[in-house]
Please model this.
Amino acid sequence: MRPHSIILTASILAVACNDPVHDANVDALGGEAPGVPKGPYHRPGQPCLTCHGGEGPASFVMSFAGTVYAHLAGKAPAWNAIVRVVDANERTYETRTNQVGNFWIPAGRFEPIFPVSAALTLTVGSVTYPRVMQTTMRLDGSCNGCHSGPPSAGSPGQLFVLPDSVNP
Amino acid sequence: MLRIATAKSLLRSLAGAAVVSAWTASGCSDNRGDGRGFLGGELSVVQPCPTTTPECGDSGPPPTYVNDVQPILAAHCTGCHGPGGQRADIDLTSYTSLMGRLKGGTSTVAQTAGNLVVNCQMPPPPLPRLSPSEVATFYCWLPKTLEK
Model:
């Protein structure tokens, strides 16, 4: 095979390997917020697994991730909320949210068997406030993929944990 | 000029590498709050729900609402079954509201409440379960209270 044929074949294969739908989803996320570097605090509220789901471009792969806000409306984060997920094999993974409300489970730590149920709890003062997901996740662990923005026909609303009357 | 540009480029690369390594490391650490945003994680297996119903013997003092039941409700129940909670319509924040719920319904209501707790359906998974002693306290308190 001639060198230029090899290059042409490799180029075709490379192009064929790209998923235009995935690429469009990544592009739709837009750029980073000014002053926020890539890392644990970036892109709160965005569907983490679009980039961190194994298809790239992020190399750090997560099995679950999302952002928890204090209330259904507003952007105050729920810091240090406990996120618990239980998979079909009754394995529980528990993690916490960081200062911007982001949480994630590294894929190497926990690969759940769907369906998965989830609950959030946040302790304010001496009171622990729980919020339990009323349905199960059956597709993937990209919480913000469904829980984005205010409640609408396409979203149950952002993840939140506190009643409106309680501030974090 | 070229050297300055090269040095700046090198610094940028190092800074980028630091961010990437911090990000990767943060996903690999397992402590509670490592200063880089990852607050740890823990994998466990849910224990099977006990299949035996608690025995309510006559030995020892019977559980009371104030000393025994109310603390359990406050720790496990009133977050949802209280003001602003997901099931605030079933108010368990006071003796009056709890008894109104239990006695206002049929005896099936109390039986169902007891069974939901005994069968580990309440608090709903994946919220933490009541301990066996807490289950026994609540379960054994119900019939004695409803007899009054």
Remarks:
- The longest strand of chain A covers residues 62-69.
- The first helix of chain A runs from residue 3 to 17.
